[in-house]
Design a protein that fits this description.
By secondary structure, this protein is an alpha+beta fold. The protein is built from 8 helices and 11 strands. The longest helix is centred in the last third of the chain and has 34 residues.
């Protein structure tokens, strides 16, 4: 594989060199000014971002970059700008990006790169890796044998409000209203009070789950909460957390999330668990590198 001015190196992420498996290689790779292997071991069972160039590991010291060749025109220039706004173009490539990381994550820690990260040459990439060597190495050591798991809270607000209203009505000691008009006013006051109390109940339920999960995780962070799930529906997202969980604790972590849903005293709130994911939520900043 020789240098080509019309191509670039697409970066999926970084991993540790000592985790790179032995196997078929891409031959030959162009030289770089940093100490690095002259060939790249192929990522097992992975398809590249453009489906034409296989992903491979390129080792420099104790760190390996996960790369594949791409055409520069696909990601750079005016034509590329319009493609990057087209979900029909971005969608399958983003899925292949994630699939390469998932294949790597199956046997090695990863520091994932953002979709569309390019380097003009291995020399430029090597300089970038050398500049951020300590940060990359420390992060990969930190996430070894750990996984990112996402926990989302989904609320069917109408169902929850009706459940709380029913409970309040059963507990109420007020005599029946003497007229339909008064009954209507009483119901509206009760519904307003229920909406206010529901927020407190919801905050308490989320706080209780967080207290259950935090001891099992080495790190946790809040992520942006979208008003509704991507698929639509009647449920709204009320929380979005990411946890970095040691693999040995994943089973208990999953159990506690399931128990968090089962133990709710009101209907309508569920906690959804997904993962493992590349540790995007905990990545360090690696500024001013790609070229």
């Amino acid at each position: 594989m020789t240098e080509n001015p019309d191509s670039a190196f697409y970066l999926y992420g970084f991993t540790r060199s000592d985790f790179v498996p032995k196997g078929p290689s891409v031959q030959p790779l162009p030289p770089a000014s940093v100490s690095a292997t002259g060939s790249g071991t192929l990522v097992p069972e992975a398809v590249g971002i453009d489906e034409g160039h296989p992903p491979f590991f390129w080792c420099a010291g104790d760190t390996a970059a996960v790369l594949s060749r791409v055409s520069r025109d696909e990601f750079c220039g005016p034509a590329a700008d319009s493609k990057l706004q087209d979900l029909a173009w971005v969608g399958p490539r983003a899925c292949r990006h994630e699939a390469v990381l998932a294949q790597t994550l199956a046997f090695a820690p990863v520091l994932p790169a953002r979709f569309g990260t390019l380097f003009s040459s291995l020399e430029v990439l090597g300089q970038f890796m050398e500049r951020h060597r300590e940060t990359i190495t420390q992060f990969l050591e930190q996430v070894t044998d750990q996984e990112e798991w996402a926990v989302k809270g989904l609320l069917d607000r109408t169902r929850a409000e009706e459940g709380l209203l029913h409970r309040k009505s059963a507990e109420a000691k007020e005599p029946p209203a003497s007229s339909p008009g008064l009954a209507y006013l009483q119901e509206q006051r009760a519904r307003l009070k229920v909406r206010q109390e529901l927020e407190g109940w919801l905050a308490g339920a989320c706080r209780a789950l967080l207290e259950e999960l935090t001891p099992l995780a080495s790190e946790a962070c809040e992520r942006e909460v979208l008003s509704r799930p991507p698929t639509g529906g009647d449920q709204e997202r009320v929380l979005n957390w990411a946890f970095l969980v040691p693999r040995r604790a994943v089973g208990e972590f999953q159990t506690r999330v399931e128990r968090g849903t089962a133990s709710q005293t009101l209907p309508g709130l569920t906690f959804a668990l997904s993962g493992p994911w590349p540790p995007y939520s905990f990545c360090p900043a690696l500024p001013a590198g790609p070229a």
